Structure formats: structure tokens, C-alpha cells
Amino acid sequence: MKSLPNILTSMRLVLALFMFVALAAASGSVPGLANRLEPPQQFALERWAVYAFVIAAVTDFFDGWLARKLNATSVWGAILDPIGDKVLVCGAVLGLLSLGPQPMVVLPAGLILFREFTVSALREVGAGKGIKLPVTLLAKWKTTLQLTALALELLVATWGAFGWLPQDPGIQEPVAFAAHGLFWIAALVTLITGAQYWEQTRKALS
Q1: pLDDT band at 72 (very low <50, low <70, confident <90, very high)
Q2: How many helices (H) and strands (E) does the chain have?
């Protein structure tokens, strides 16, 4: 049972990879599949990509909760968990951008990617000098905001793939507005946490 948290974290990595490849394939970005997929096949890939993202996002909560509940925290889990988070977020951002022109998404998406790679580099440099950057409470909220906003953005971008959703602009447009607004808020919080980590590293190095 104590291995369950690490299994969930590993599953998140696998689901993130599947989600990205499915979105890339649906957009015609996979060599050999371009212009070969029929609309029903594209819609199916988009649906499964969104399902995979949602399931992966849910595991982000449960793996940490189970690790504490089962007293199963480990070094391997501490390494895998942030990697799983970043792979899921970055994979979703890149998959979202592959679906086509989305002006309201490009800038916050780029800012999120910039911050994630920068903080990863800071952690790597800091670790080499014995500096630890503990996860802040705001950074935990940042991840929740990112995952929620990305789930909504993916839903908006693949709306037509879900036949049970009302194909009514009067409903779709407010949902898209809410998704874009939340995504921008997530990007802002992401930058703030990045600045906090940068300042922590600067003080530690000086």
C-alpha cells in the first residue's frame, strides 16, 4: 500500500504524455497522421486527452494526501511529484497551443512555461550548492489554479468534440471568458511565485 502514492505519481506522468500526444495527433502535428484522421477520430482523441488531463490532475491531490495518510513519504516521491506536476502543466500548455490559434492563451501560456523552466533551473543550481527551495503555500495554490484553468481551456478548445455539450455561443462564450480570465490569473500567480523563488535563491547565494 505504501507504494500507491508513487504509483499514482508515475501514472500522472504517463497520462500527461498520452494527453500531449493525443492533442498533437488530433491537430495533425504527428508525422504520418496529418490529413489522415477523420473528424470523428480527431474528436475522440481530443475527448480522451481531456479525460486523461482531468484524471492526472486529480492524482496530483491524492498522491500527496495518501503519502501523508499512509506515512509513505519518500525521497523518490519527493523527486517525482514536482516533475509530474511540471510535465502535466507544460504538456497541457503545449497541447493546447497545438490545437490552433488562440490569441487570449498565447501570452499567459508562454509566461507559465518561462517560469516553470526558470524555477527548475534555479532548483538545479541551488541543489548543487546545498540550497533548498521549499514549496510555498502560494505555489501549491498556483498548481491548483494552473490545473483548473487548463482544464477549462482544454474544454473550450475541444468543445465540439463533446456532443453532450450545448453547441450554443451564448453558453460557450461565457465559459471561454471565464477560462481565459482564470488562465491569466494563474499566469500572474505563477510569475509571483517564480519571483519569490528567485529572491530566495538570490539571498541564499549571497
Answers
A1: low
A2: 6, 0
